Amino acid sequence: MKSILMRDFFLGLMISFTLGVLAVALILGIAAGSGTMQLSLIWQVFILSAICSLVNLVYRSEQLKFLWQSLIGYVLTTGAIMGCGNIFGWYDYGGNSYNKSSFLLLSLLGYSLCYLITWMMIWRVNKRRKAAWNSSLAAYKERNRSEG
Fold first, then answer.
1. Domain limits at 141?
2. Rounded-to-integer distance, Cα 38 and Cα 121, Å
């Protein structure tokens, strides 16, 4: 089990780091018109990716129902992103059009929308997986009845 958790952590780290760097590059390209990224942003994205990979291990808990995993995951993930963003000064890039609190609120709405879309995809996968398991279990029980 420990090796599975380590594998999931590192897989999550690679995925979230890659997506994080791409998102930062896209945001900087659109918002600042910059084709470059500061090296410090890459380290900041790596730190946030590591935290989010740890948080996402909550989905491996067999003691929590999916709804609780989702709620805890949402609060911790959004808190980690907003906390890191605040510590690293990401919300100070609002420019003249937004003050920091407006930028925080827009960011929270954006993160929540992304989380909701991701959650819906995970929910559909889990629903299909459970249906396949139930179908396999029903077929197994039927075979055992006919043999017995």
1. 2-147
2. 33
